[in-house]
Amino acid sequence: MTRAPVFRTEGIEHTRRFLNWVRCHEAEIRHVAEGTSTRVRLVEIRPQVLGTTVYLRLRFTCGDAMGMNLATVACDHVVREAIEPGTGASCVALSGSFCVDKKASAVNMLEGRGKRIHAEVTLDAHQLVTVLKTTAVALCEVQYRKNLLGSIMAGAMGGFNAHYANMVAACGSHRPEPSRYSTLKCQGRERASAGGHAGEFAGVVSLADLAEELVG
């Protein structure tokens, strides 16, 4: 799980000192963050700079918890107890929209946020015809012309119209807030192929940023 507080510096030179301080005090930052919970482990601090605006994307492992609250609490302590006193920079917001939370984004697709899920399926010709009323060739053409080309034409980001969010939300529909992170769940990649044994369909899917807990 990630959280990215945004800071304001007094100028480019202050930004340089800020980044240098963070790099040199990573062990201190990790100590403060991991002191907030036995489940939190800080694994990466990735800065992104725009002049006097600095984002620090902190990546955590949070065990079987989803980790949204754990990451937020850890960042809050890190900002107040270490970064602001050590750098003199002001934290403008604890979440600077570079996390990225509840928004489809390239950074989440590329670097992930939450859990990465990979799955594959193989369906024989009998299953395709009797259950899905289709063929491997027809299914692959839908994947190519609708999910891939159609999504490119629409400028879709990450989901390629495969409706991952619907299926993931349905799996968690027994919970009070099953659709809270549907925007994150919609991002993924898939591959479909017809080959191998006669009439067989093979599919692979990868979800980049599934914000789900195993417990809690």
What does this 3D model show about the protein?
The protein is an alpha+beta fold. It folds into 2 domains: 2-93, Alpha-Beta Plaits (2-Layer Sandwich); 113-210, 3-hydroxy-3-methylglutaryl-coenzyme A Reductase, Chain A, domain 2 (Alpha-Beta Complex). It contains 8 helices and 8 strands. Strands 1, 2, 3, 4 and 5 form a 5-stranded antiparallel sheet that branches. Strands 6-8-7 form a 3-stranded antiparallel sheet. β7 and β8 form a beta hairpin. α2 crosses α3. The longest helix has 20 residues, at 68-87. The protein is elongated and about 65 Å long. The model has no long low-confidence stretch (mean pLDDT 86).
SSE blueprint and pairings:
Layout: E1 2-3, E2 6-8, H1 12-24, H2 26-34, E3 41-50, E4 53-61, H3 68-87, E5 90-93, H4 106-111, E6 115-123, H5 125-130, H6 136-154, H7 164-171, H8 182-185, E7 188-194, E8 201-210
Helix pairs in contact: 2-3
Radius of gyration: 21 Å
Q: State the helix count.
A: 8
The N- and C-terminal alpha carbons lie at a distance of 16 Å
- H/E element sequence: EEHHEEHEHEHHHHEE
Q: Give start-end ranges of low-pLDDT stretches.
A: none
How many discrete domains? 2
Total number of strands: 8
- CATH class of the largest domain equals Alpha Beta
Structural class: alpha+beta
CATH topology of the largest domain: 3-hydroxy-3-methylglutaryl-coenzyme A Reductase, Chain A, domain 2
Percentage of β-strand residues: 25-35%
- The coarse silhouette is elongated
State the fourth-level CATH superfamily of the largest domain.
Answer: 3-hydroxy-3-methylglutaryl-coenzyme A Reductase, Chain A, domain 2
Largest sheet: 5 strands, antiparallel
Q: What is the level-2 CATH architecture name of the largest domain?
A: Alpha-Beta Complex
Q: How would you state the average pLDDT, rounded?
A: 86
| Helix content range | 25-40%
